[in-house]
């Protein structure tokens, strides 16, 4: 029964076939990442059995820090900022993620328990990673497309931060589109995994709604903080990224 999920790999094979047929050049990436996902989730399944037994909060936050380091590595590989790329990614992802997590703890929404801190923290860090890569990628594109206007502002006496203001607004807005779309369609088109899992476990619908709203709101908050921190940490060096 447990091995039935392997049949779903047929969907991956479809993606590989299409990539090969249309010469997209991402067949190898799909194969490697699909196998990597299987291995990582297998390891996670066995690791959580031991992680959920941890009682010392220090160990829990160290695990989250390791997640942030891996997210930093992943983000840098995707967007490849050659100057202070790892530093900017780490500061942005870590600060935004821990800020939202500590707010949830401070507001007594979640407790410092392994079965709450680790899954919630993982969702927060994952969303911070996605937002960061979307934001930086869009910011680089906006600067390349508007470099003459930016240089004109600077020539007229504007600071770099002032000259980049209009492109930063567009980049932040674009990086928030996925979570805003989710907020708009949740419960009608998109049925989140948290809600499905709790309903299947027999929880009352009202309680399920409360948990899912918490998840959605924290995702919006971490996305916003990530975009803001990403800009604050990168704007002094962003022109270097667009010169290449």
TrEMBL record:
Annotated membrane topology: Multi-pass membrane protein
Subcellular location per the Swiss-Prot or TrEMBL entry: Membrane
Entry keyword annotation includes Transmembrane: yes
InterPro entries in the record: UPF0014_fam
Record keywords: Membrane, Transmembrane, Transmembrane helix
Keyword Membrane assigned: yes
GO cellular component: plasma membrane
Transmembrane segments: 6-21, 33-52, 58-76, 88-110, 116-135, 147-167, 179-201, 213-234
Main subcellular localisation: membrane
Family of this protein: Belongs to the UPF0014 family.
Protein name per the record: ABC transport system permease protein
Species of origin: Venenivibrio stagnispumantis
